[in-house]
Write a structure and sequence with these properties.
alpha+beta, OB fold (Dihydrolipoamide Acetyltransferase, E2P), 5-stranded mixed β-barrel, about 20% helix, binds copper (II) ion
Length: about 120
């Protein structure tokens, strides 16, 4: 048990506490993830559970998204940090999805990601 190792652990733990405190303030409530700030449709380009080349600790989804009302006027391919890898469940590249974004202090966070229903679309 070297003192320097202990000190480092305390610094890391403190940093994590600060991050979660900030996240809680921004979210402002327990149901925060259920109400996205923005919604859109996209095709999944890639799913990156952590750690990945795109982020060391958080899940990242690359989406080829349609214009997002109130946020982005253009269709584009870009990465988003996802709130949880649970959102990746059952999805694969090429899938058309509906997604929801939450604007947080450190990320435009994907809080909702589900297959877009092709059923019910009439020709
Ligand atoms: Cu975009």
């Amino acid at each position: 048990m070297s003192p320097s190792l202990t000190e480092r652990s305390i610094v890391v733990a403190t940093a994590l506490l600060l991050v979660s405190a900030v996240a809680r303030d921004v979210h402002g409530g327990s149901d925060s993830t259920s109400r996205p700030d923005y919604q859109g449709t996209a095709v999944v380009v890639a799913l990156h559970p952590p750690p990945s080349s795109l982020h060391p600790a958080r899940p990242v989804v690359v989406l080829d998204h349609e214009p997002i009302a109130g946020l982005m006027d253009e269709k584009m391919t870009m990465p988003f940090i996802a709130a949880s890898t649970d959102l990746f469940q059952g999805l694969k590249p090429g899938d058309r999805v509906e997604f929801g974004l939450k604007s947080t202090a450190d990320a435009l966070l994907v809080v909702l990601l589900r297959p877009a229903s092709p059923v019910g679309r009439r020709r």
